[in-house]
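dumping this here before i forget
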Amino acid sequence: MTEPSTNTPRALPAIGPAILAPRPFVERRRGSRRAEDRLADEERRLLAVALDILASGLPAETRLAGLLDLLARICGAERAAVVADGEQRRVAVAASGPDDTPAALELAAWLDAAAPRSRARRAAAAPAEVVVAIRTGPPPPRARSTDAPPHHAWLPIPSAGDVTLGFAFARARDAESLSRKLPPALARHAAVALALVTEAMTTERELATLRTGEVERATYVSTVAHELRTPLTGLSGYLDLILDGQVDDDDVVREFLERGRSIVGSMTDLIGDLLELSRLESGSLVLESEPFSVAEVLQAVGAALMPIALDRGVPLVTTSPPRIKTAVGDRRRVEQIVTNLAGNALKFGSDGVEVELAGWFDGPVAVIAVRDEGPGIGADDRDHVFERFYRMADHERVTGTGLGLSIARDLARRMGGDLDVASRLGVGSAFVLVLPGPTAHVDADVVAAATAVALRLETDRLEALAAVRASGSRAPASGRAAQVQGARGGITAGTRG
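structure:
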């Protein structure tokens, strides 16, 4: 007779026995007399401690920092680093935190430049990628108490391929005795342990990137579905009322149809932005970069938006550099970015308060600032305004896709520039677009420095405007456009060159 079956699942058999990590290695043996025995003891100690670090179960970054600190202690150094050539040249170095990072980067940069390699590879290679592993335990003991610069030394490990260890010492004589403190056998074992933990760290980072990408993709799909479903629900409601004969007034029917057309237009804009974003992410967007006049771009954007400015009673002013001054980029895309920024300024700005399109050159880069004296952006929101679909709490009812600023920044960076914002609540904002100047190729650090300078200038301008308002006096005109009396009265339009 067979036993009745049950739906209770059986536990799967274990793959293998559970093995607990051993207790940490503790050296109890006194020093050996013979040199061969001392070397064997050092080798045994290195292997035991390295295995303890590898089997600790800590994050790979922490284990990497632990191995580098172990090497530093063996050699009597302040810190250690390793550089390896593979698909990409990388330097790894340990640090205790932000205050300790500059010294770690100093050693990493020195090792990248000093490590042995052929002249051809040195000439063709870019600076190595630097991985700073943040340690959780105490750093190696430091013998240098003064501000004197450290003494650097490197030690190649031929048996491990193109791998070189680097050290920072407090004293020159310690640096000179590096090869004696870390003989080839110990260096080889250290290289094996570093290779294992580096591979583990690479795997961890790839998994983290994949998980982040999956979360972003799920959020993106959910947000897009919501952004499309909301207007479709409204459109369906208007059409149902009309088709069911519940609206007898022709004027109301026309109003509903106008609202439906507006909804279709907003969905068309959203789909267009989504396609633009997809092309940016896939790399299929083709940019036609060439020199263009910054003044002509600002004047073209100002002319295109002037009807909107007049309708809303917002003065729109351009302050242009000389027409002959040129930047390099895709002119159509630059006009798209500036139009988006100026359109937002007109949308969120206060009635009768000027919006300005200003352009100037800072050395090898061109700078365009779109300024407004609207409600401003808080510090928390400034960290997120360039994220997809992000809207500030008081902008929920304002129409838009929530993708414009994200696309604008991506386009700016694809053209070798950048886009950022300076703002103060209750005073106004200034979006700063930085692009390469006439030399076409400008290093990223130059663009970053120019962006920081422009943001600082715009922040100072907003602080000065806040001080003027706090004093109760009127801000000086400082070149405000002449008043043009229009049908609405007090409408301003103008150009400054």
